[in-house]
User: Fold this.
Amino acid sequence: MSKSLIKLNNEVKEIELNLLDDLDIEIGENSSLNLKVLNLDKNGEFSLNANVGKNSELIVTFADFSKGNISLKTMVNLVSENASCDWHLATLGNSDAKKTFDVSFNHMVGNTTAVMNNYGVARDNSRIVFTGVNHIKEHASKSKTVQNAKIIVFDEKASGVASPILRIDENDVQASHAAIVGQLNNNHMFYLMSRGLTKKEAKLLITMGYLQPISNNFSKENKDKIEEAIKEAM
Amino acid sequence: MPTLEIRNLHVSVEDKEILKGLDLKMDSLKTIALLGPNGNGKSTLLQTIMGNPNYKITEGQIFYDGKDITNLEVDERSKLGIFLGMQYPSEVPGVNNADFLKACLNAHREKPVPLFEFYKLLDNAYKRTGIPFEMSNRNLNEGFSGGEKKKNEILQMLVLNPSLVMLDEIDSGLDVDAIQVVAKVLKEEQEKRGFLIVSHYARLYELLKVDRALILVNGKIVADGGRELIKKIDKEGYEWLRKSLGIEIEKETNMNQVSIGTCATKEMLKGK
Assistant:
């Protein structure tokens, strides 16, 4: 397994990757990294570790539309003041796939921000698990941390677990936490079908509506690939 | 030949029987006003004709244009020309209004609609319903006001061009001006399609040509007449049924929980 290192200091970078390797990210001061990862075919276990420095931001858009199993462990350390991380993840589980995303953030000092949005659609017999800990450490006051984890379970044998955890060891912080695992909304299905869409078309439209927004962050080429991957999966 | 024919329809929702042997024949291009006290089966009837799987047909049959549709999938009913303007249109996150309309329109056609033709159709529908065209880019009903949702139902009707339009309290949530707009569109459409309209207010019916009025009580049609029925009920309420027809309305013990604007059947079930 190869491992990549991305290093930034006093610079702004935008990187779009079509492959998934273990990744180490070192962001120094006054920098911004906009990282986009599209995984269409790799399976296995991966890690992503990042340190974000003073006045720097890390933006991650992670789209996983691969067919098999995947386990991703991510740790983002917000090591200096005004460090922030904006994390978006979308994943689609098919057939017997097991997909686990453990996404954690450490607020090591005050005035740091982490926003996490994880979205999943579990179909067939697949299983999607969202875990992770957003930890606001002692002395990290005025930090803000947000966790959103949402999974739609499409089929009877599919399953989802969304259990992100907040750990807060300091006062004067902002933290919010939302975890939802729900089934496909029958009222939505009836509404769409009453306008002439078949069950399959209605499901596709709902899935697209749920997962496709992430594609807006990608290049035109990858955007098309995401749309294709969703259509193919449905 | 009647467009819609219903024979001895029995329908249950979560094991509670709502429709109890309902018969109805409706000719094409006619407008029927469907009246009745809350919780007596009006919405249930419309939802069942559309094929909502939550409403279980335990007995009886529904025919449309001579075809037995009792067990037909919801989308196939739509393709036959049946349309339901819902009382509570769903907000579907992430689904763009225009994309949705295009997908629906294409579902009704063999070849996909050409872009220009679609745009013209959409533009016309937005103008007629008085909805700003920019709203075609919003997500389906998401964050729409009650009135906007209802107008969006009428807009979908115009785009899909159905032969039978069922409207479930389309006028609730509309302000006076919006009712005028909606009634104007409906009136213009009455020559082209049949309407089965549920409303609690005489106002909407007054603005339309009504061929027939039916009263649904205790899961059956108990009165079948003309406009005069609407006037009677508007003036005297459903008490009139008891006085002149000797019909007692089976009251649920918890009916007093029901307020205007909530689906009485749903409320009744909640109280079970």
Remarks:
- The mean pLDDT of chain A is 94.
- Chain A touches chain B at residues 185-188, 190-199, 201-202, 205-206, 208-210, 212-213 (CB under 8 Å).
